[in-house]
Amino acid sequence: MSRPAESVHAVIKAYDVRGVVGEQIDVDFVRDVGGAFARLVRDDAGRVVIGYDMRESSPELANAFAGGVTAQGLDVVLIGLASTDQLYFASGLLDCPGAMFTASHNPAKYNGIKLCRAGAKPVGQDTGLATISAEVIEGVPGFDGEAGSVSEQDVLTEYADFVRGLVDLSSMKPMSVAVDAGNGMGGHTVPAVFEPLPLSVDPMYFELDGNFPNHEANPLDPKNLVDLQERVRLTGADIGLAFDGDADRCFVVDELGNPVSPSAVTALVAERELAKEPGATIIHNLITSRAVPELVIELGGTPVRTRVGHSFIKQQMAETGAIFGGEHSAHYYFRDFWGADSGMLAALHVLAALGEQDRPLSDLMKSYERYEASGEINSTVADAAERTAAVLAAFSGRTKSVDRLDGVTVNLGQGAWFNLRASNTEPLLRLNVEARTVEEVDALVAEILGVVRA
Questions:
Q1: Which candidate in 104, 289, 342, 374 is catalytic?
Q2: Model pTM?
Q3: Is 158 exposed, middle or buried (0-12, 13-18, 19+ CB in 10 A)?
């Protein structure tokens, strides 16, 4: 059946499929997406692996997608409940395309699909989603051959063994770890991965519940870290870890209950990966702290800067052969994990680094935290280009350089810079500022917002 283009494009976005269940996404729509995806990958694979998160709608939608795939003659391997990086692992292990049913950190009424080709290679707008959209709009053609089969395979133990095997954990001392899974898939993967390690785990919200009864499973929002921060301070844990809903992102809290910048985690992991492969390439996006490329250069590595967005990171990972990539949003990408992102792998690196020496985490991270940052600040504007031009004019006398890789990045010298970039989907300007001191950051934010919001 054909579908209105507007409704399809509202759900099949630049990087994934996502929408409100029952309004934008239902079993019929998902079955069509499954059929179109099968047609997209048919020449490269004979089967598709499917996993899903803890949302109430996920099993039914996953089964509908499987029906669309098998109707096109491809087989399906169901791995059941999984984190997104567990699905990527299955795609790599089985060398076949995959589909993960999740809406990540979005509220309970949402669901969606993250698609990949064999070896966890991403499927985005330019690499398949546009083709899928067109077929769903026009109507997915039928298939005259024999329908595919459906089998089930539990890969959790193999996933846990694999990620532990990518990190040197041999010198880890016993430690206490508070983990906030946010009722998401971290409650599924953390026990399997951490069980053999010398860790005393204090589990928070490990019950799988797609209604998120305790807080949103989005640790990027500071209010969702509060419970973990309080638990660490109360119990004296050595470290706190928080995972988002599909557990592909991991956030870190030190023993004082203070959040650790994802840029600092990127720098730490980069140092560890460069120790394994001196001179390797490290990817970072343009709003990651300047401490990351500085450290990479000091260690003899090659930093490569990209636009914001996982598709750009993964593309650069593939093109450069980079060993590791990190984003300000706590997505961490590993060449040895098929270039895909894994919050669990980043967590293991931080645990290994902490557990092989005697300093507390707050001291360990000081060498990676060279600057102060504003975090991302959004402003609703009528004309993003006009407001950006006004900011550039206001700073024209102090600007050392401007580049336009993604929005505008203005270098003010002495370690100070800011980036302004427009949202692709909303009337927003996003501001990030970094400088040597909190006072300098605050002053720059106030000055820039004074122009943006005038």
A1: 104
A2: 0.94
A3: middle
